[in-house]
Amino acid sequence: MLKQYLSEDTMQHKTSVDNWEEAITVAARPLLNKGVIDESYVEAMIDSVEKNGPYIVLKDYFALPHAQAGAGVNEVGMSLLTLEESVDLKGNEVKVFLVLAAVDASAHLDALSEVSQLLMDDEKYEVVLQGDLEKIRQLIEEGNE
């Protein structure tokens, strides 16, 4: 399921960004370009962190930016940004931003389950943190078998 959303055109690796807001904006760009989300969704993700704090940081160095399902979302989608240099997200260092765009409360749950499995497996998570997109794609392929 994750393979359906994360592909070469929705995954990016950069050396650094200036701040977490830029990281979310850059991470979401592939979904914007494909028409999966509108600009309002990017703004809603940033506003949500401003309002609610760093709740999107799920594990050391990993954030799952998202906002209210359906608002500014045209279809289910995910995009990934990995950074060589971590960025401070309200007191949390983050190197991996996985944007989640959901149309409702359930359509994305299978993909999210696969993400959880990656996060819980220390060896696989280390591969994700290293930011090698080809190795990350291989992990996603393996998880799909």
Task: Give a quick summary of the entry.
Keywords: Cytoplasm, Kinase, Phosphoprotein, Phosphotransferase system, Transferase, Transport. By secondary structure, this protein is of the alpha/beta class.
Tags for this entry?
PTS_EIIA_type-2_dom, Mannitol-specific EII, Chain A, alpha/beta, five-stranded mixed sheet, transport, 145 residues, 6 helices
Please describe what this structure looks like.
Residues 4-143 form the PTS EIIA type-2 domain. The chain has 145 residues and is α/β, with parallel strands linked by helices. The protein has one domain: 3-Layer(aba) Sandwich (Mannitol-specific EII, Chain A), CATH 3.40.930. Helices cover 45% and strands 23% of the residues. The protein has a 5-stranded mixed β-sheet with strand order 1-4-5-3-2, with helices on both faces. Strand 2 (57-59) and strand 3 form a beta hairpin. Helix 2 packs antiparallel against helix 3. The longest helix has 14 residues, at 20-33. The model has no long low-confidence stretch (mean pLDDT 93).
Gap between N and C termini: 10 Å
Structural class: alpha/beta
What is the count of helical runs? 6
SS elements, strand count: 5
Mean pLDDT: 93
CATH architectural arrangement: 3-Layer(aba) Sandwich
What's the CATH H-level homologous superfamily?
A: Mannitol-specific EII, Chain A
In one word, what is the shape?
globular
The main sheet comes to:
5 strands, mixed
What is the CATH topology descriptor? Answer: Mannitol-specific EII, Chain A
Sequence of strands across the biggest β-sheet: 1-4-5-3-2
Oligomer: single chain
Main location: cytoplasm
InterPro entries: Ascorbate-PTS_EIIA_comp, PTrfase/Anion_transptr, PTS_EIIA_type-2_dom
Organism: Alkalibacterium pelagium
Subcellular location: Cytoplasm
